[in-house]
Amino acid sequence: MAEHVLNAEGLNCPLPILKAKKALKSVPQGEILVVTSTDPGSVADFAAFCNQTGNELVSSSSEGNVYRFEIKRV
Amino acid sequence: MLDNAQQGDMENAKSMSIIVTKGSLDWAYPPFILATTAAAMDINVTMFFTFYGLALLKKDLDLKVTTLGNPAMEMPMMGMHMSMPNIVSVIPGVDRMATTMMKNLIKKKGVASIPELREAAVDLDIRIIACQMTLDLFEMKQEDMIDGIEIGGAATYMETASKSDINLFI
């Protein structure tokens, strides 16, 4: 299974979400997209995005200034 | 039987409309940010551009900010905030300078540009309607606007708005 990664670091709202939406299109169903960002707002925003779209937020974590999200495509 | 994904799609079939009335660089952000984000969240979005909002649909965007009538405007500068008194707007070049400062900040902070958000709006299949009456009033031509837009009036908007879950006026 190929790893799907999106680097949204340095981007501000709403670009991480817009780019994640675009990236998810090329992720097969059931596979995971890993997104990294530096926008603190993206923590709440990715939770809301997944809630609304039905994609599963498998994990949400941070290390230093970088936030990491694992989103499983439905 | 429907699988979860399909059920999710049906539950999420929400819709939103936004009336866009302002054409300055700062006021261009709220409608485009909300519209693109909503579309990314599988919400059907219609944007109705009227009066000065139509400037946001021109092929050649030349958006500006003004300090005039905006007492809240402060620009971060060397760790401080420089307030922009209303009166300075009358000095030639001040609005141009404020616009340049704003564009530099936008770039520095990783905020999307308006052309970028507008492109995203088109990519996300947002329905864009330009107000026929405003086009007539200001003698604007559809050729000067981006491709893929509809022309319509108040009734066109109201038909959509009456079926939408969220209606905003910006």
Q: Characteristics of this structure?
A:
heterodimer, A: 74 residues, alpha+beta, Translation Initiation Factor IF3, 4 strands, B: alpha/beta, two-stranded antiparallel sheet
Provide a descriptive summary of the structure in words.
Chain A is of the alpha+beta class and 74 residues long. Helix content of chain A is 30%, strand content 35%. Chain A has a four-stranded mixed β-sheet, with helices on one face. With 170 residues, chain B is an alpha/beta fold. Chain B has a single domain, classed as DsrEFH-like (Hypothetical Protein Ychn, Chain: A), CATH 3.40.1260. Chain B contains six helices and seven strands, in the order H-E-H-E-E-E-H-H-E-H-E-H-E. A five-stranded parallel β-sheet of chain B has the order 6-5-2-1-7, with helices on both faces. A two-stranded antiparallel sheet of chain B has the order 3-4. The longest helix of chain B is centred in the first third of the chain and has 16 residues, at 25-40. Chain B is globular. The interface between A and B is medium-sized, with 19 and 19 residues.
- Percent of residues in beta strands of chain A: 35-45%
Distance between the termini of chain B: 42 Å
Portion in beta strands of chain B: 15-25%
Instruction: Give the overall pLDDT of chain B as a whole number.
Output: 89
Q: Overall mean pLDDT score of chain A?
A: 94
What is the end-to-end distance of chain A?
Answer: 16 Å
* Elements of chain B, N to C (H/E): HEHEEEHHEHEHE
Q: Helix/strand-derived class of chain B?
A: alpha/beta
